[in-house]
Design a protein that fits this description.
mainly alpha; two-stranded antiparallel sheet; two-stranded antiparallel ribbon; binds protoporphyrin IX containing FE
């Protein structure tokens, strides 16, 4: 380090151009700060939650990684890495000549330091999230805290609570009252209800299991004022309908309209006239396909509703009469959320501290928690009956005219789903969900067809599949039954979806370099895969991770280091190869032999890690996926046969609700919907940007005078029913810094009048109070002086302070105007995501140790790795500086709709608006690519 400083000093002395002098001087100072950072040593992982990292670094570290800019924003509550070099667009890179002078530019140059620093910060967050934010509701939490028979809780791997109960039809198959280990047919593929993903914890993630939590049980249900800290925090102010959710919706969520008649509350104009218009704030780098993608994902992951229904009891959720002028409805009623348990939870004491055994109320997940495409294939007997298979080849899904058939009267559905296309999860169906369900049904059939083709050519060849009941017997292509092929198809489709989500949707949602690397690391590792240059090291790390750390009963190894080291080889495929000898030396041995064995449950299951807490989504995860603001009111419909640049119609999303989607899908075709949603920008996740139609959805089943519901208001009501902590405590719980006033929502980088006006509105809605410094409000963090945080949030006792503690979490994250570059979500949502997105992979054996031909078939495994049949195809050039495969969704789209070839030729990431010029290095500019200059979407400016 010192030698490099010397080089720069000599250069400075040589009398260079002044800009260059300044840049070099800045780099010299940065390097001096780097030296200070190195001298200070590596930050330890926090021992207690009040010592957590909080995304904030020391001054020297900030300067080393991002110069003065990074140092300047250290005082804000928002994470520092967003201000590091290289974490933004081209302007965030250090001046090029500094990089040139500094020959070790790659990792030691400023941009390298910035990006590496960001990745390091994110890894600290992930490790500490794993350490402090896992709270299971299945009564395993006590063991997590106290440990079991000398094994610390976070290193536990098997729980009696996740055994199949005696009444379960597969109770005997897994071992009954003895040791339970799934075997035979139950481990061959993804089971319908999701049991036996983990061989020794059969119930984990299956349909009907309870949602977990990420926040301490004691901090939940703030409205109930259960603890002194909660009472101090909220002063008994909030309640289920206080502040009024519909009033909040109308004041803080409504999209302002320049021509209300042309929008017509989201219902557009007759004949799908192109003259309709609903204004919305648009994200220039994310398209409508991305909005419906995430709704399609959530239908796979979680559902509080059982067959589209909540509890039987209805409740009034209308706004006060006085607020009627805002456009809300006093007469609205909705069914209450379904509660699984509401009795007082047990308590236990450990090392002098008292804990709750579970959350004060729990809620069941009515679908499997696995990423198993259950929205297509089913999650219980009833939903499976809605899945239509092709009678001519039962391995295929039924698709007359290449589209899904509609439900028939005999199908097990709710009356309101009549006329919809048949699939397992039919709720909240619109053209977007219809699009993806049809697309992946075509993908399923494409896989089956290719398999049949190979089988016809080489019927006696080994398909790679094996039956665990007869593990030694080769299954030739000709032997594969339609049911076996159907299930292999499901595995391939589910893994393809997971790959699209991880390596395509997310890097576009979080459009910057650190996240591109981070997400690819989750999939294929920082060392191997498309970004890495050292496959052998990646493999060795993979072995160490699963063979050593994965089996460890030491907390540090089992949890923290496992997560860090897994960034090397990637989570996907962890443990899918096993070598006999010392893992590192075995890799250097050319003759090494993979001894992974289907008969050995520790091989089949060996790659998973639950970090001591059985996997299910936490309630808090659902909160941050309430993304209704993404949806536009009107779809700008285009026709591939006419002119892709022209908007032909404006079709209201609500006019495609439920059965209405079937007609518009059939009459207009999948390809035109792909083009239309691919080119249109989605709605920014921001305040005052919710679709009008969702505030006014008509639902015939509701027992109310209005038979209407405001879904945006319902998002707040449901979170309050589910006891999600309010925004400030939510952030503290996740190791983020609290806000001390509503003014913290103003972006210090670029304050605007609009942001200031919103702060006023927040103050009007949530109010202020005179604070009492003697009242501690949290034990999750301490203040800067190491003292308990109190009601005054750093202000003098008796001051008038904002009720920052009361802000609904959804309102809070929508209000965050300070965001890392290219982030379509806020940092608060993102932190929830860091933890749960990687756990969803870590816990699933089909993405780790069972990512093998024995389950997927050889063709299936290669299909997932290469994004389709045949060898991997590479994208031309180096988008944002990376060589990359042709994206997985682009390949799926091309297979399903060859007519899109011309349009997709220009597309690198299918979620980036298709006619946008991506420019250089993470540009967010809204300008047309070559050939699309005439596209009407570029003529209306970004705001309209
Ligand atoms: C475009 C049409 C959409 C419609 C009509 C719709 C409708 C609804 C309705 C009525 C609910 C309330 C269910 C209840 O609690 O009683 C709901 C919940 C929800 N919606 Fe949407 N939604 C749409 C799009 C989206 C999108 C794009 C997302 C993005 C992720 C999304 C995410 C959610 C989530 C996370 C819930 C909570 C589900 C649960 O509690 O299990 N929705 N939606």
């Amino acid at each position: 380090m010192r030698a490099r400083v010397f080089v720069f000093t000599v250069l400075l002395g040589a009398g260079c151009h002044s800009d260059r002098d300044k840049a070099i001087q800045a780099e010299v100072e940065s390097l001096q700060n780097c030296a200070q950072m190195v001298n200070a040593g590596i930050r330890p992982i926090a021992a207690t939650r009040d010592q957590r990292f909080q995304g904030k670094v020391e001054a020297a570290t900030a300067v080393c990684r991002g110069g003065d800019v990074a140092a300047q924003f250290r005082a804000t509550p928002w994470v520092d890495w967003a201000n590091y070099w290289g974490a933004g667009d081209a302007r965030s890179k250090a001046p090029e000549f500094v990089t040139q002078v500094n020959q070790q530019a790659n990792h030691l140059g400023p941009t390298g330091r910035g990006i590496d620093g960001a990745l390091l910060d994110l890894e600290y967050q992930r490790v500490e999230l794993i350490k402090f934010n896992l709270f299971d509701n299945n009564k395993t939490y006590r063991q997590y805290v106290t440990g079991r028979r000398g094994v610390p809780g976070p290193a536990l791997k098997v729980w009696a609570e996740l055994r199949l109960p005696p009444a379960h039809p597969n109770y005997r198959d897994v071992g009954g009252s003895g040791e339970q280990v799934c075997r035979g047919e139950l481990i061959r593929a993804r089971t319908l209800t999701g049991i036996c993903n983990d061989l020794r914890n059969p119930l984990m993630g299956s349909t009907g299991q309870l949602f977990a939590r990420n926040a301490e049980f004691d901090t939940l249900f703030p409205d109930l004022g259960r603890t002194e800290l909660t009472r101090n925090r909220h002063g008994n102010r909030p309640a289920l309908l206080k502040p009024d959710p519909q009033a909040i919706s109308r004041k803080l969520f409504t999209r302002a309209q320049s021509n209300p008649a042309a929008c017509n509350d989201g219902y557009g104009l007759p004949g799908f006239s192109k003259d309709a218009n609903c204004d919305y704030q648009k994200a220039p780098f994310f398209n409508v396909l991305a909005a419906f993608w995430i709704q399609f994902m959530t239908h796979d992951w979680f559902s509080h509703l059982d067959e589209g229904h909540n509890a039987k009891e209805f409740m009034s959720v209308g706004c006060g009469e006085a607020d009627r002028k805002l456009g809300c409805r006093p007469g609205d009623r909705i069914d209450q959320t379904l509660v699984a348990e509401s009795g007082e939870p047990g308590r236990f004491t450990h090392e002098g501290k008292e804990y709750l055994e579970r959350a004060p109320k729990t809620f069941a997940n009515h679908v499997t928690a696995w990423w198993d495409a259950s929205q297509i294939y089913g999650y219980d007997e009833r939903s499976r009956k809605r899945v239509k298979r092709d009678p001519a080849d039962r391995a295929r899904l039924l698709m007359p005219n290449a589209l899904l058939p509609a439900f028939e009267p005999a199908d097990p559905i709710n009356p309101e789903w009549a006329g919809q296309e048949a699939t397992a999860f039919p709720d909240n169906w619109t053209i977007g969900i219809s699009f993806y369900t049809n697309l992946f049904a075509r993908e399923h059939n494409a896989f089956v067809d290719e398999f049949r083709k190979v089988a016809a050519q080489t019927p006696d060849a080994d398909s790679g599949l094996r039956n665990p009941a007869k593990p030694g017997a080769v299954i030739r292509y000709r032997d594969v039954t339609p049911d076996e092929l159907f299930e292999a198809g499901r595995l391939v489709v589910a893994a393809g979806i997971a790959k699209i989500h991880t390596t395509e949707w997310t890097p576009q949602l979080l459009y910057d370099e650190p996240l591109y690397r981070g997400m690819n690391a989750n999939w294929s590792g920082l060392l191997g895969g498309p970004l890495g240059d050292n496959k052998a090291v990646a493999d060795a790390l993979g072995q160490i991770v699963t063979q050593s750390f994965g089996k460890s009963t030491e907390v540090k190894k089992a949890g923290q280091w496992y997560s860090v080291f897994a960034s090397g080889p990637g989570i996907f495929g962890l443990g899918s190869q096993v070598y006999a000898d010392d893992p590192v030396f075995a890799l250097l041995d050319k003759n090494k032999k993979d001894i992974w064995d289907l008969r050995n449950p520790d091989h089949v299951n060996g790659g998973v890690n639950h970090f001591g807490s059985p996997f299910n989504f936490p309630e808090e995860f659902i909160t941050v996926y309430r993304l209704h603001a993404l949806v536009p009111d009107l779809i700008e419909y285009r026709d591939l046969q006419k002119d892709a640049n022209r908007i032909q119609n404006k079709i209201p999303v609500i006019e495609t609700f439920r059965g209405k989607a079937t007609d518009v899908m059939r009459s207009r075709g999948l390809g035109n919907w792909a083009l239309s949603m691919g080119r249109q920008r989605l709605g920014l996740l921001a305040l005052q940007n919710h679709p009008r139609f969702l505030q006014n959805v008509k639902m015939g089943r509701l027992e109310s005078a209005t038979q209407q519901i405001d879904v945006a208001a319902l998002d707040l009501i449901r979170d309050r029913e589910h006891g999600v902590p309010r925004f400030n405590e939510f952030r503290r719980q996740y190791g983020l810094r609290q806000l001390t006033a509503f003014d913290d929502f103003i972006d210090a980088h670029a304050p605007t009048q609009e942001q200031k006006d919103l702060v006023k509105l927040l103050r009007e809605i949530y109010g202020q109070h005179t604070c009492d410094a003697s009242e501690a409000i949290t034990d999750a963090q301490l203040d800067a002086a190491g003292k308990p945080i109190n009601d005054c949030l750093g202000r003098p006792n008796g001051s008038l302070v904002d009720n920052a503690e009361d802000v609904d979490t959804v309102v809070g994250w929508l209000a965050e105007s300070t965001r890392p570059h290219g982030f379509a979500i806020s940092e608060t949502q993102f932190v929830v995501f860091i933890l749960n997105a990687s756990r969803r992979l870590f816990s699933d054996r089909f993405f780790t140790s069972s990512f093998r031909p024995e389950f997927y078939s050889t063709l299936g495994l290669d299909w997932v790795k290469n994004n389709g049949p045949g060898p991997a195809q590479m994208e031309e050039g180096t988008p944002n500086g990376h060589r990359q495969q042709v994206s997985p969704l682009k390949r799926v789209l091309l297979r399903a709709m060859p007519e899109l070839a011309g349009e997709l030729q220009h597309v690198v990431n299918a979620f980036d608006p298709w006619a946008r010029d991506r420019g250089e290095y993470y540009s967010l500019a809204w300008k047309p690519r070559k050939g699309a200059e005439a596209d009407e979407a570029f003529q209306d400016g970004a705001k309209k």
